[in-house]
Amino acid sequence: MKTLKIAIQKSGRLNEKSVELLKNCGLNFENYKSSLISPVSNFPLEILFLRDDDIPEYVQDGIADLGIVGENVIQETEVEVNYLQRLGFGKCSLKIAVPNNNDIQSLADLNGKAIATTYPVILRKFLQEQGIQSDIRTISGSVEISPGLGLSDAICDLVSTGGTLKSNGLKPFADVMSSEAVLIGSKGTDGNHLVQELIQRIQSVLRAKETKYVVLNVRKDNLDAVIALLPGVKSPSVVPLAEADWVAVHTVIPERDFWDRISQLKQAGAQGIVVMPIEKIIL
Ligand code: ATP
Ligand code: MG
User: Fold this and answer.
1) Which of 46, 53, 58, 140 has the fewest other C-beta atoms within 10 Å?
2) Terminal CA-to-CA distance of the chain, rounded, Å?
């Protein structure tokens, strides 16, 4: 059986979460910072640790079958790869930002202005779509200091909390794209059964992350009202308690509207609510 290769970031914002995801999929491997390649002992897979910029091309050329990388890097490198799964981490937006005190009010005001970025390809496309002609200054890092140095009038950079912009006297002005980490594959790999197996494991870990396991007690009179509030995987399990009028209900609920759901359950008569994390959900 051919051993698959998956490329992940060697160090940086996506490294830790990528390693964690693969470990949660039950893959055993050493995560030495010094090694560039690490075999998985219990799955026919090798992990390549690379600069994130190189991952899309490695996957496009089939040197790695799979990769975990930000969508922003894929768009910037304009590679031909398959998007296999969004991974829910590394969320950020590519934004145009301008100095706090400036005369740029609308996108049209960017005509003739200099914009510094490490994402010239994405920015050029965006400006073209908007019919704006700016002078794109491609630099390799520390974009946020360029207006202060007089190098540009605006910047186009990745933002998550906006803290870096703020501390450099900049404010977000326009959204260019939003991004998160995704699993990509070389053309043709989606038919491979090992790839399918890995995608299924990843999906079961992601599903589990989005949900909590909840156990609660309720008087039988209130059971219908409580059940009406519970989606569950199929339907909740109802378990008798030593006290005849009471039952325990076991279910899973989405993390998304968790606190709303819990207060509704309390109002409907739920008591002794215990909430637990879930490791995997296999459908
Ligand atoms: P490398 O050394 O691998 O080239 P890098 O310095 O280019 O690393 P990082 O800063 O580690 O890259 O960011 C990796 C990815 O994390 C980005 O491409 C983006 O998809 C995502 N990300 C999430 N939040 C942010 C943020 N606030 N700023 C930058 N990138 C972010
Ligand atoms: Mg990089």
Assistant:
1) 140
2) 27
